[in-house]
Design a protein that fits this description.
heterodimer; A: 251 residues; mainly alpha; MetI-like fold; globular; B: 248 residues; alpha/beta; 9 helices; 25% strand
């Protein structure tokens, strides 16, 4: 292999206006973090109520299940194009101009797209976690006079969140990785920055090794935070998981 | 005396399966009624209908003057006045014992936290577990969990307490500690409806025994009479099996 390694490239000035390539690629990482944080927030805010709704009978349940099927069965890339190219055309004229002219338009639409896509996945995880809680817990809460909303708020959701931590960890990591799809609508996130650096400098290995390391760092931070959350909540959850039916014949 | 719980011609189906067939019975204030019968006879289903946890398709159930089937009935409010103890305890594992006892007091009855905790501690003392107030359910034995569950039901100051096989999930050595609490409650005049196979408990404190088989109430008799002279062949067969097992 005849490759010219040049790690000092990161301290060279970048042609896009950044002081150095290092700053350019770090700015990309920062954009990736912003996309991930807001997408995850949307995914939780939409996905958790949707997971509860999907368990209901009637119109509410059907609507939630239809949402899940729509958003998880279309490739994220196709959804992103729909959000970016088609959705603005459906907006009222003033809003349309705002979205198309704003330099942050692609970032906002891309983040919304990733958030609503991930919400469908979180919905299913919440539904699965709630279904994993025995029916007796629902009955016990109802027998005490708690209303359905109170039963979710004080009994089912606190337990579901403990069950959700491992799958949520994977989901947040997926969101970080899927955020790279946003480069297709022109957002300079981490992968786009690495690609731009490669095109300007021809140092493809250095560019993508830096991007790889930054993705790993971001995801290690997520794993660390979620592990801490698991330990904190696990003080009770571990005991109950192993010993709820201590002394029980039918446990 | 007017019945506290009154059910008339109650029928229930799960799809095509007819699980309750025109069940009629009543419970007056202060009475202790034991429901027994073979597995699958519908007794657990029947008791869960009494606080509306299970829906019925036909008949009426009136509890403390309130018709459970009426669309105007506020079921959560009614349930808060009927205690229920489950086979698998169903304590909330993410809450400690004290929080298990205060949750519904504060959220449903709107009691102040201090008042709810005081009531909880009084009841924990009564079931002999005041030292476990800060433990989590999974740190307790099955018998202790069930005593906490009884205290949780009593914390709501219910007009009646329903027991759905309260000792069936317990190891033999833990059954008596739960039964002792139930006997004490019965002697204090608590209105109780208990689905149980503990015939010793039934003999000791029950005023009446309801025997079910195949979704029907086959016998409804004063407990003395039921044990000495069961009227139906099915009850005699059931009793001979149960008592032979207990004696053995």
């Amino acid at each position: 292999m005849n490759y010219y390694w040049n790690w000092s490239i990161f301290f060279d000035p970048a042609p896009d206006g950044s002081a150095t390539y290092l700053q350019m690629i770090l700015a990309g990482a920062a954009t990736t973090c912003i996309i991930a944080v807001f997408s995850a927030a949307i995914a939780i805010a939409v996905g958790v109520p949707m997971g509860i709704a999907a368990r209901q009978s009637g119109m509410v349940g059907s609507a939630a299940r239809a949402y899940v099927e729509l958003f998880r069965n279309i490739p994220l890339l196709a959804q992103m194009f729909l959000w970016y190219f088609v959705l603005p055309e459906l907006l009222p004229r003033d809003l349309q101009i705002l979205v198309k002219q704003s330099p942050d338009g692609p970032l906002v639409l891309g983040t919304l797209s990733l958030g609503f896509y991930s919400a469908a996945r979180i919905c299913e995880q919440v539904r699965a976690a709630l279904n994993a809680i025995r029916a007796g817990q629902w009955q016990a809460a109802r027998a005490l006079g708690l209303r359905p909303v109170q039963t979710y708020r004080y009994v089912l959701l606190p337990r579901a969140f403990r069950l959700l931590i491992p799958t949520m960890t994977s989901e947040f990591i997926s969101i970080v990785k899927n955020s790279a799809v946003i480069l297709t609508i022109g957002v300079m996130e981490l992968t786009a920055s690495a690609r731009a650096m490669q095109e300007y400098s021809f140092q493809i290995f250095e560019s993508f090794i830096a991007a790889t390391l930054l993705y790993l760092m971001i995801n290690f931070v997520i794993v660390a935070i979620m592990s801490a959350a698991e330990v904190l909540s696990g003080t009770e959850a571990d005991r109950s998981a192993t010993r709820t039916h201590r002394g029980g014949k039918h446990g | 005396m007017a019945a506290l719980i009154d059910m008339k011609l109650v029928s229930k189906w799960y799809g095509d399966l007819h699980v309750l067939k025109e069940c009629t019975a009543s419970v007056t204030k202060g009475e202790v009624v034991v429901i027994c019968g073979p597995s699958g006879s519908g007794k657990s289903t029947l008791i869960k209908c009494l606080n509306g946890l299970e829906q019925i398709q036909k008949g009426t159930i009136i509890v403390d003057g309130i018709d459970l089937g009426s669309p105007k009935t506020d079921l959560p409010a009614l349930r808060s006045r009927i205690g229920m103890v489950f086979q698998h305890f169903e304590l909330f594992p993410h809450l400690d014992v004290l929080a298990n006892l205060t949750l519904a007091q504060t959220k449903v009855l709107r009691r102040a936290k201090a008042e709810a905790e005081e009531r909880a501690m009084t009841l924990l003392k009564r079931v002999g577990l005041e030292a476990k107030a800060r433990s989590y359910p999974a740190q307790l034995s099955g018998g202790q969990q069930q005593r906490v569950a009884i205290a949780r039901a009593l914390a709501m100051d219910p007009v009646a307490v329903l027991f759905d096989e309260p000792t069936s999930a317990l190891d033999p050595e833990m059954i008596s500690e739960v039964l002792d609490v139930m006997v004490a409650l019965a002697r204090e005049g608590t209105t109780m409806v208990a689905v149980t196979h503990e015939m010793g408990f039934a003999r000791q404190v029950a005023d009446r025994v309801i025997f079910m088989d195949g979704g029907e109430i086959v016998e409804d008799a004063p407990s003395g009479g039921f044990f000495e002279q069961p009227q139906s062949e099915r009850a005699r067969a059931f009793l001979s099996k149960i008592l032979a097992h207990t004696a053995g």
